[in-house]
Specification:
Organism: Rhodnius prolixus (Triatomid bug)
Order of helices and strands: HHEHEEHEEEEEHHEEHEEEHEHHHHHH
CATH class of the largest domain: Alpha Beta
Number of helices: 14
Bound molecules: coenzyme A
Structural class: alpha+beta
CATH superfamily of the largest domain: Gcn5-related N-acetyltransferase (GNAT)
Protein name: Histone acetyltransferase type B catalytic subunit
Pfam families: HAT1_C (PF21183), Hat1_N (PF10394)
Radius of gyration: 26 Å
Number of strands: 14
Helix content: 40-55%
GO molecular function: histone acetyltransferase activity; histone binding; transaminase activity
CATH architecture of the largest domain: 3-Layer(aba) Sandwich
Largest sheet: 6 strands, mixed
Strand content: 15-25%
Shape: globular
Keywords: Acyltransferase, Aminotransferase, Nucleus, Transferase
Distance between the termini: 54 Å
């Protein structure tokens, strides 16, 4: 229940003393001491409900700024809280920002900037935990940047401590993300670093991205790795790093004979687009996906080649087929284009058709077909409603596929 004190505060006053946590929070990856005074590598969270509560609002301060600074490699952490004014109405407590951060961050941090600045020196000797699994460069000449991917499991206590710090990024960028419990099972963690030369000419590592993979057991002695959480930190987005990181995860598992296939847990639309691009780019040169074979429809051969070469499952193989088939379809030729759309529609309709047929079948035998386990149509819709929904779905899919195709055409 709202306290009497709060009832005395006018709405206006409430607004003045309320700030969106995403605006208040400034995250910074400090590579060189001079970065402390510059906006370089500063960025905002995408969300902060796991830190400041569902509304993401912080109450009780005017001009609040929260600095969440990290040494870019070893992730030594500093938290600084600054504000112009704190609410001082009797009976009204401002939010305890430090306590909220302490609960969410779950690892040690400094609150004295001079101590943090001194500790930054230790980042010169930081080397990533785990085993190097991939290295690559992006850009040309002086613009070229080098990246390395390290893989870790849950057996190294030092890494687990480090991982606790990395997980703060996960809750600030992935909706409904949970902290991974390392005792829970078979996790692998892929950390992506930029390897760079610092202002004092030391080769250093700076965190830029992260992927966690859960290795599910598959009978009799196999595994099915499932990509769970992937984050590329905002200053490093849109230069192709997620696609490189995902390919690094694939390469890590592709030669492992125990791996049945690699799946992804509830991919966000942005991530699914990267995944589609990576998978299509990998498969485009497979014999089964040649333009001539694509014209003959989705085939067992495509499923087999996807699985054998890239550990891609049937559902994703179908998506790759649909994207590549669209790439080679002349959308200005009505016959060709309509045949393509009809095929997608047919695929989307199939589960509904099955449901309808099952319901019709059971209605001969039972006065109430719901007595049997036959799922109803969405929202008790008719076949016609269903058709309209599916028309929309086909066009929505085509829009998604177009974005992947234009990335394939740009080739980055
Ligand atoms: C989703 C996410 C991981 C993508 O990371 P990313 O490194 O930016 O991905 P990529 O750079 O490979 O591709 C992103 C875009 O950059 C574009 N791009 C890649 N290289 C480029 C270049 N050199 N120049 C211009 N654009 C480029 C791609 O074409 C792609 O464009 P699109 O969005 O129009 O398809 C990142 O946005 C993120 O961390 N989001 C928050 C967390 C999240 O949603 N995670 C996934 C769910 S678990």
């Amino acid at each position: 229940m709202e306290s009497l004190g709060i009832l005395n505060v006018t709405d206006n006053k409430k607004n003045v003393y309320c700030i969106d946590g995403n605006d208040a929070l400034e995250i910074k990856l400090v590579r060189n001491p001079e970065d402390l005074q510059s906006p370089r590598f500063s960025f905002k969270p995408d969300m902060c409900h796991q830190v400041f509560g569902e509304s993401e609002q912080i109450f009780g301060y005017k001009g609040l700024k929260i600095k969440l600074y990290y040494a870019a490699g070893n992730l030594t952490t500093y938290i600084g809280i600054e504000y112009e004014e704190k609410i001082s109405t009797p009976g009204i407590e401002p939010d305890n920002v430090m306590e909220m951060l302490r609960n969410a961050i779950q690892s040690r941090f400094e609150t004295n900037i001079t101590v943090f600045e001194r500790l930054l020196q230790e980042d010169d000797t930081f080397h990533p935990h785990g085993n190097l699994t991939n290295a690559f460069s992006i850009g040309d000449g002086l613009e070229s940047k080098t990246f390395e991917v390290y893989v870790n499991d849950t057996s190294d206590a030092n890494f687990l401590e480090y991982h606790t710090k990395v997980q703060t990024f996960v809750i600030l960028y992935i909706d409904a993300a949970n902290y991974v419990d390392p005792d829970e099972g078979n996790w692998k963690f892929f950390l992506l670093y930029e390897k760079y030369l610092s202002s004092n000419m030391v080769t250093k590592y700076g965190v830029v991205g992260y992927a966690s993979v859960y290795e599910y057991y598959a009978y009799p002695s196999h595994i099915r790795p499932r990509v769970s959480q992937v984050v590329i930190l905002p200053p490093f987005r849109c230069i192709g790093l997620c696609s490189k990181l995902l390919n690094s995860v694939y390469s890590y598992y592709q030669t492992n004979r125990k791996v049945v296939d690699i799946t992804v847990e509830s991919p966000s639309p942005d991530f699914q687009r990267v995944r589609d691009f990576v998978d299509c780019k990998n498969c485009i040169n497979l014999d089964a996906f040649s333009p001539a074979k694509l014209k003959h429809g989705f085939s067992e051969e495509q499923i087999r080649q996807c699985k054998e070469r890239f550990k891609i499952n049937k559902k994703q193989a179908r998506r790759i087929y649909e994207i590549l088939r669209l790439k080679y379809t002349n959308i200005h030729n009505d016959e060709e284009y309509n045949a393509y759309l009809a095929e997608i529609k047919d695929r989307l309709c199939r589960p509904n058709k099955k449901r309808i047929m099952k319901r019709r079948f059971w209605s001969y035998f039972a006065s109430d077909p719901d007595e049997f386990y036959v799922p109803a149509l969405p929202d008790n819709g008719t076949l016609q409603d269903c058709d309209e929904d599916i028309e929309d779905e086909v066009l929505e899919l085509k829009e998604q596929y177009d974005l992947v195709i234009s990335r394939l055409n740009r080739n980055h």
